[in-house]
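We give the chain.
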Amino acid sequence: MILNAAVDSAIAIAERRIGKPGEQVFAGRPYVMIQRSFLAFKRSAWFVILSGFVEPVFYLASFGYGLSKLVGNMSAAGHPISYAAFIAPGLLATSAMNGAIYDSTWNVFFKMHHGKVYNAMLATSLGPLDVAIGEIGWALLRGFTYAVGFMIVVTPFGLIPSWWGILAIPAAVLIAFGFASVGMGITSYLKDFQQMEWINFFMLPMFLFSGTLYSISAFPRALQLIIEALPLSQAIGLVRDLTLGQVHPGTLWHVLYFVVMIVAGLIFTTRRLQNLFQK
């Protein structure tokens, strides 16, 4: 009886998609993916997510306060600020990136190549866009959690001097969305653990050179232009503008950068999943 009811439900869902735009790729049920991720989180993944929140706090304590007397004040738009206030937005942006990337790469890699989860899901009424949005949606929840937790920690220390800083939370979600939408599609091309290490190969230099811990003005102008094109540099610029209250037209450019990244990433990931599992 239960099996027959499940089959009837799947048939009904598939029939409701007929004639609707995007019927081959979207069933309107990405929440199913989020529900599954939440169940997995309750059973075993909570420690991994907790570690992602603690990491930027450790960086802030060790660098922001441990080295502050050696570094002295930093300059932001001509105004002096403490070293801790300078690196806090960079660590928030990096935390949003890390949470989104690891959820949309290693998590997706295991589901794709070892658990064969997507094969089973896409044999049901779910479409590839449901899978992409569901997985990315879970990464956004993780990015949102990191942002809220980090803001709760740093605000009492006076590291968010502007009321614009509250917008750093939705900005962190936007950043997570951009990285997750692209990361999932890239992961679909990686076949083994050795290739997955390429992700760290690119992420670590991006963290070190994108202005997280120091200003990129230390580099020659030609190298600055390359760094400014990197997504983490754009993310740090967006969060730093908001937390320091230095909102200007360039802030909208940071937002537009991630909007384009999200749209391109969703199209790229959806088509890739469709080619892989719905041939």
